[in-house]
Specification:
alpha+beta; three-stranded mixed beta sheet; 1 helix; 5 strands
Length: 88
């Protein structure tokens, strides 16, 4: 019997709020792999500007934002991504 430990491995989709936006979009770019101010594409192909990190001891401005882009939601569901909400 062969056991495939990678069989259930899924790609992550990170829900972030780009600078100046009021809606969460999903991206496959890992937080920390891109720098603040860099532009990245979301699953719905909207360009997101990666926000500056929040200083230690403060709550990120994006924390209360819970609304998600419907198109990103659909694409993440169809692709069976593991979804993670991320605040900088």
């Amino acid at each position: 019997m062969v056991i495939d430990v990678f069989r259930d491995e899924r790609q992550d989709a990170f829900w972030i709020v780009g600078s100046g936006l009021a809606l969460r979009h999903a991206t496959t770019h890992r937080p920390g792999a891109v720098y603040a101010g860099q532009w990245i594409a979301s699953l719905c192909e909207v360009q997101l500007k990666v926000p500056q990190p929040t200083p230690s001891g403060r709550e990120p401005n994006s924390k209360p934002v819970t609304d998600k882009c419907p198109e990103c939601t659909q694409k993440a569901t169809e692709a069976n991504f593991a979804e993670i909400t991320w605040d900088f």
